[in-house]
Amino acid sequence: MRAMAIITSSILLLSSAQVLSAPVQRSLPAGRTESVLALRPLIDLPEGIAIDPRGSIFVANRRLENDTRVSEILEIALDGTVTVFATLDPAVTDGIASGVLGLAIDSQGDLYAALASFDPSTHGVWRIRRGGEIERLPGSSRIVLPNAIAFDARGNIYVTDSGDGAIWRFPRTGPGKLWIRHALLAPDPNFGIGANGIAFVPPRDLFVANTDLGLIARVRIRHDGKADEPEIVAAGIELLTTDGLTADVYGNLHAVIAAAPAFGTSSLVQVDPDTGEINSSTARTDAFDFPTSLAFGRGRRDHKSLYVVNSGLFPEGRPEAAPGVIRVGVGVPGSPVSSRQAAIADGPGQPH
């Protein structure tokens, strides 16, 4: 098995006193952008993002080293300090769809990372507990291309399989299994990226973006925990190459469009899943370069901003769009998921 390391230091573990002394970020006006983190063009290739309840930002990075990429997770502390929080695989084959991809943080504060290493010893979804313990979710090594991660109100874990057009479901404990495979989640055979970004909206709706097909589908979670038949809630040229997906407090969806300039569309859009209406969230197209993931601010971060990862595939002459993280004001906070919502959603006596 390849060496795997969890790297922590006193810089990473902020005390409650430090957190309370950090100023709350001012909200950006809707549509305005600003840089949060700039990485190194042509060396760093960031992908996923997650923000914990304190406001620490975690970014999945594929750092070029010789001819392979180091799959690592960076942490941006409240004071702006950047450190390597974890290294999941030191040598993954260089590629846009390989390495550490999606990140998510559960209600306990544990971090989850999807690693597409295609090496049986490391491939799958990893849980990094707050205390530093690390474990691979049982069964996740069988996911063809593990990508984005979301949780429902009861803490079940959902992982998109971009290569197989599927979603996997993992209980809070025990092995996971294939939850649904469907044509609306399948990739175009000529490109290969189907089900990608995923977001949960209470009480029991999962929304999944299909990168190749340019659509967002709803998959309702039935009371027995099984998947209902997927249905398209939005589609069009504006959603071609959709990558990351998240939801706000009103149930509207927010998506990043990785290759928007190729289609003359917006890199960040808001989608009404009830009407299918798609609107641009900002006119600042110059601030984006192949954006891949997004998350709402939490803790001392601006709750009404989206923090967006730029992978920075085409940074030449565009320092404002280098690989890294920017924030974009959107005027609304993200969707909360709580145990109380879970009780309302599932009713009494509905085991998952």
General form? globular
Number of helices: 3
* Largest beta-sheet characterization: 5 strands, antiparallel
Low-confidence stretches: 5-22, 338-352
Kindly report the average pLDDT value. 88
Radius of gyration equals 18 Å
- Could you name the CATH topology? Neuraminidase
Report the structural category: mainly beta
Lateral arrangement of strands in the main beta sheet:
1-6-5-4-3
Classify the helix fraction into a percent range.
Answer: under 10%
Structurally, the number of domains stands at 1
CATH class descriptor name: Mainly Beta
Relative strand content: 35-45%
From the N-terminal CA to the C-terminal CA, the straight-line distance is 33 Å
How do the helices and strands follow one another from N- to C-terminus?
Answer: EHEEEEEEEEEEEEEEEEEEEHEEEEEH
Number of strands: 25
CATH superfamily: TolB, C-terminal domain
- By CATH, the architecture is named 6 Propeller
Give a written overview of the molecule.
The protein is mostly beta strands and 352 residues long. It has one domain (25-346): TolB, C-terminal domain (Neuraminidase, 6 Propeller). 5% of the residues lie in helices and 42% in strands. It is built from 3 helices and 25 strands. It has helices at 16-21, 260-263, 339-346; strands spanning 5-6, 33-38, 44-51, 57-65, 68-76, 82-93, 99-105, 111-116, 124-128, 134-136, 146-151, 157-161, 166-170, 177-181, 195-201, 205-210, 215-220, 231-235, 242-247, 253-257, 268-271, 278-280, 291-296, 305-310, 324-329. It has a 5-stranded antiparallel sheet with strand order 1-6-5-4-3, with no helix packed on it. A 4-stranded antiparallel sheet has the order 2-25-24-23, with no helix packed on it. The radius of gyration is 18 Å and the shape is globular. The two termini are 33 Å apart. Mean pLDDT is 88; it is low at 5-22 and 338-352.
